[in-house]
Amino acid sequence: MTARIPFLDLGAQHAEIADEVAQGFERILATTTFLGGPDVDAFESEFAAYQGVGHAIGLANGTDAVEFALRAVGVGPGDEVVMPANTFVATAEAAWRIGAKVVLVDIDPESYLMDLAAAAAARTSRTRAVVPVHLFGRLVDIPALRDRVGEVAVVEDAAQAQGARLRGRAAGQGGIAATSFYPGKNLGAYGDAGAVVTDSAEFGRYVRRLGGHGGLVKYEHDIVGFTSRLDALQAVVLRAKLAHLDEWNARRRHLAQRYDDLLADLPILLPEIPAEAESHVWHLYVVRLPDDAPVTARDEVLARLTASGVGTGIHYPKPVHLTPAFADLGYSLGAFPHAERAAERMFSLPMYPHLSDAQQDEVVAALTAALQ
To answer: Keyword Hydrolase: yes or no (predicted)?
Structure first.
């Protein structure tokens, strides 16, 4: 059944940029420059400038971006990589594909971001990198994390935080970050795409070589590499959307504040709104049932919302250590209580820049009825 108010409406977003995208596609089809070329070069330059870094390297997807960023800082087989238990599984997959050991830590129960003290405590002599995940649109305090973990490399997973800035700093400034342009992201392509952003020319060259079969020039292979490149059609879409990103993120902040006001009296826990407004771009608006609610309560609430025509999501239904894919990490139920309790009770409400105030009012009314 199609939701009357969808969880995400990419069609409305496309309508706003349809003419520009169509013109760009016609240009690419006329020149048949499907890989690389002026549009890819232009997007990489524009996105690097937007992030305030020296280099942006377009890749095929966000998982490759995390893996390549980890490889760039020297992560190899047997090295430990510390990351939060509450993240999309791709963060862990990227480390696993290198042969590194995934070391999970719990989250802060208020922000749902990585617990910085836990990350510092997990560090050992074998720790090569820490991967803070900028989750739901909110940035981790990277300078504070670096103060705690010392000389260990920090690789930011910024797939959900395009446009966010904390005290003027965007992801990747002074280090290296990976992002995804999966269609539902704040800056999303019309298929899979990703990027690594960094101030390091050395890291940038290495990542570009990895994605181009180990070389920067055709048929010259300096290292063993992979095939992971941003195609020109996706670059056209991303360039068109990048021009609107700040405006769209401002609309997300408006909607988040309205949700906060309209839901204040309901028996649910609302997301923490940080003092630094720019540090959150509200990729998702995640609410949570109280810890004393029955475990089955969320399913009942979501079923009622679905019946009323309101789309919802769960981010994420299981922490990484409770997925069958990563059962061999050796963590048991109860290892990360904050992440586990959140996973049982969180759910996401519609949040996208083309959601109208009237539609949001309907979401609130439906949620009010569902909670009763």
So the answer is: no
Q: Is residue 5 part of a domain?
A: no
Number of domains present in the structure of the chain: 2
Over the stretch 172-186, which tens digit does the pLDDT of each residue have? 999 999 999 999 999
pTM of the full structure: 0.97
Q: End of a domain among 187, 214, 242?
A: 242
Specify whether the CB–CB gap between 5 and 313 falls below 8 A: no
H helix intervals, the chain: 10-31, 38-51, 62-72, 89-98, 116-122, 142-149, 201-211, 232-242, 245-262, 297-307, 337-345, 357-371
Q: What does the alpha-carbon distance between residue 103 and residue 108 come to, in Å, rounded to a whole number?
A: 17
- What is the per-residue pLDDT across 266-290, written as a single tens digit (0 to 9) for each? 999 999 999 999 999 999 999 999 9
Closest CA to 192 of 67, 62, 97: 62
- Domain of 362, CATH number, reads 3.90.1150.10
Instruction: Give the CATH number for residue 125.
Output: 3.40.640.10
